[in-house]
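Session log. Operator J.P. requested a structure for one protein chain; no other inputs attached. Running the standard single-chain path with token output.
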Amino acid sequence: MPDEQDPLPITDAPGDPDSERPDPWIGQTLAGYTILEKIGEGGMGVVYLAKDRSLDRPAAVKFLATHLADNPDFIELFLREARAAAQLNHPNLVAVYDAGCKGEDVYFLIMEYVEGLDLESLLDEAGVFPAQTAAGYIRQAALGLGYAHRKNLVHRDVKPDNLMLTSDGGI
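Structure written below.
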């Protein structure tokens, strides 16, 4: 029995603004990960919570937005950066597990799932962080970014909603 279902039609790709049907990815299996629920969406694509079927751990699956999957240069950049990020191992960076394409043009990235809140949401709730707290968050983000830069990888979208705060206070 095959591990994965047949690829979905491209009209059901994540981030398709014309789709009014229930999310077709929920319950699907992709590269050994069962997609459970949608947890985020932005200009770059849609992110889902998934479960690694073999290791029984949570993961995040990011699908590249359909309008970006039409650009061969952007696809190459997306996959090249995924390969480079997969080489990084640092406590302040999300681990990348896999990347690829399902069907003809549904590109994905599978990464570590970080349970917690993004700093943008925390800022919306709290207003302003105390200076010492903000400095601690900035320091942790800088440690991760510095490590990535030393490995010749530049994060192109650093912002509060891309920084996750874990229950133990880690970024």
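Operator note: The longest strand covers residues 33-42.
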